Amino acid sequence: MHSSTSAIPLAGDARCEAPITALEIGMFLVLLGSYALNAMDRQIFPLIAADVRKEFGFGLAETGLLSTIFTLGMAVAGVPTGYLLARLSRKTVLQIGIAIFSLGTLLTAYSHSFADMIAYRAATGIGEAMQLTVVIAVAASYFARYRSTAVGAINFSFGIGSIVGPLLGGHLIGAQRDWRMPLVVFGVAGFAAMALIAITLSKRMTENASAADARNDQRGATTMWNRNTVLLTAMSVIGGLCIYGYLGMYPTFLREHLHYTPSDAGRVMSIFGFGVFASIFGGWLGDRFHPKLVLSLSFAGTGLLGFLLFSGPTGILVQSALSFAWGLVVSGVLYVNLAGYHIKAVRASLTNRATGVFVTTLYGAGAFAGYIIGGIAARFGWNIAGLAQITLLATIGVVLTMLLRIERMSLPVRKP
């Protein structure tokens, strides 16, 4: 008989016997800081998309593709990165990923056409896939007691970048009157982050594999081809289409349909980042409560918010509140726990590969999310686009959640 999961420490978790030190926390914060920098760039391109479209004459669907094509790079690199981690150290793969991401960001600022710009944007995704796969794998293995909570901390850092990125980017655009400036600034900052990681991050943290509780680990699947992983993969595809339909084209919706100024659109998008701050709490929910409850309510909330964002009130205060709620529910709870449950569906030895599958499927779907929702909006209007790509898909996600077999997942069990 299955009982709801709890956040009680696992008996075999190495972290139980050895309390985490301030130095270890500091190293993990450096790791999170590098990902926050990544998030800043992710929020910048949708903000400058209207300016890029105006200068180059791109169509709405093409602009949406540029906003989300980096996820195609993530999809291409996700699973191979999992295998690469079996041959190189996590720290090495992390550094390579940041270098690729930063170079692609810099080159985007010097694009001359759609062809080279889309190539650079896709390249940044390859780098981010390598970085994100390592960061999630480190968090899940080093903080094995609270895997979803640790993944939540990663998304928390994304929230910081989501706030700082649009605000700083909007300021740089306004001061320099040049959409290229934020890309140059964040690209250079990425190489600075590489130097900081090389100096401060110990392989003791990145290569550590905390011992998981043997009784619980035996409940996870011994192969990636299992019922729960297949269902979670389908849910990750839906999550990618919903999340990046919003991230890729919502700023364009604000500027072109609701006629917001760049600064107003930037402020609304930064409010989304405050919602993402709930990621640690969202991860705790995933560690504490039944997976079906957490995922089904998250998908239901996603569907409702998708409808309200594109069909509800148009005032800046209401749109800001909805963006905050989106960040909280979709990014803070749904995204975090999709990643966490992918890891919990298999044995600890498959952590790297499970993370790679999550990155590949969610971001692979996200690669075309902006193009699809932009194409639907151009033909049928934004109301139908939000209803079709977000609300309808989220409803399917609720149904898939009910098919999970929780008793076959590697979950902590309540103590008697």
Keyword list:
single chain; mainly alpha; 416 residues; Growth Hormone, Chain: A; 18 helices
The number of helical runs is 18
Beta-strand portion reads under 5%
* CA-atom Rg in angstroms: 20 Å
Sequence of secondary-structure elements:
HHHHHHHHHHHHHHHHHH
The assigned CATH architecture is Up-down Bundle
What class would the helix/strand composition place it in?
mainly alpha
CATH superfamily: MFS general substrate transporter like domains
Mean pLDDT reading:
82
- What's the shape? globular
Structural domain tally: 1
Tell me the CATH topology: Growth Hormone, Chain: A
The stretches of 5 or more residues where confidence is low (pLDDT under 50) are: 1-17, 211-215
The rounded distance between the terminal residues' Cα atoms is: 14 Å
CATH class: Mainly Alpha
Topology, number of strands: 0
Taking the sheet with the most strands, its summary is: none
Describe the model.
- It is a multi-pass membrane protein.
- Residues 27-409 form the Major facilitator superfamily (MFS) profile domain.
- It comes from Cupriavidus basilensis.
- This protein is mainly alpha-helical and 416 residues long.
- It has one domain (14-408): Growth Hormone, Chain: A (Up-down Bundle).
- It contains 18 helices and no strands.
- The protein has helices spanning 14-17, 22-56, 60-68, 70-84, 90-108, 114-142, 147-176, 181-200, 203-206, 214-217, 227-257, 262-276, 279-288, 291-311, 316-344, 351-366, 369-380, 382-401.
- Helix 2 runs antiparallel to helix 3 and helix 12 packs parallel to helix 15.
- The protein starts with 13 loop residues before the first helix and ends in a 15-residue tail after the last helix.
